[in-house]
Each structure stands twice: as C-alpha cells, then as structure tokens.
Amino acid sequence: MIRCVREVQRVPYAWPSPPDAASARALGVGTCASKHAMLAEDLAAIGVVTLPLFVVGPLVPPIFRDDPSCIAGLPLREVHECLTALTEWAGPVRIDVTWDPPLVRRGFSGSLAWDGETDMALGVDTIDAGWAVPREALRAAKEALRARLYRPGERAVRDAMLSAISRKLIQLRVPS
After folding, report:
1. What integer pLDDT is reported at residue 79 of this predicted model?
2. Domain boundaries along the sequence of the chain
3. Cβ atoms of 50 and 86 closer than 8 Å
4. pTM of this prediction?
C-alpha cells in the first residue's frame, strides 16, 4: 500500500487535466482528482478498499498567498479530492497524494514519510467539513458542491487561478 501511495504521489500535479485515472496514466501528470482516481485503482488491485473524500479549503496554497498574481484567488475555496483507505490494521486512514515530492519539500502540505497507519496531511488547509461521496456519483457531487460554493463568475476566476498556479509549480520543481 505504501509503495502504491508513493508511486502515485511522484506523479507531478498539473492543472488542467481530465479527472480520471486513465488520463493521469497517459499524460504522466494529474490533478487531485485524477491522481486519487489512479491511486484508488492501484489500491483496489491489491485489495485495499478506498472511498472518495472531498474537503474544502483555500484555493491559493499558503506559499502563494503573498504573490500579487494570486490576489484574485485569495477569497475563493477549492473542492479538494483525496481518499479514505479502509485498512485492517489501522481502520480508515486519510490519503492525500496531490502534491508531488518536490513541491512538498518546497512547503506544500503533504506527507512524504507516510507509514500506512496514520492520516496523511491534506493538500489544502481545510476550512469546512469533509464529505464522503459514492464513487459512481463523484463528479456530479463535486459539481453540486462547487455550485453551492461559487457565486457567478467565481468558477472562471478559480480556473484561471489554478492554471496560473500550475505554471508556477513548474518553476518550483527546478532544484535551486
């Protein structure tokens, strides 16, 4: 299980990209949605049951909150996807592989030395509760939650901000 988690966590985060496992595998990059879809498939293949989990937190990661180009995104929240894995040895554990290791080393929230028994750090600072949703209705549930969170025009700002942040991440991955 730990090996599967580490392999998917190494996949670089990039937005936009489709929210499914097949696209993350084909492109070699993914979002929180596609990376966790891929991880769910990999864990299912070794007999670990997972459940999708949504949490809501600030759209702009802490490392960019003082960046003038991210001001428009500061008031917005993001519906973030991760997983709950149902383990026989530790009960349910939260898994979040959104940020790849170079980004976690640069200050993004993540767990690189995960032990398979504790909850991983979330990729967003949560400000709202979490929601478990059925895998079969995941996309519809996420869009319904977004519709509740975003006022008219905010979704376009969110999308533009995620594109800008994704471009910034490329530079952060370059060793200094």
Report:
1. 96
2. 49-173
3. yes
4. 0.95
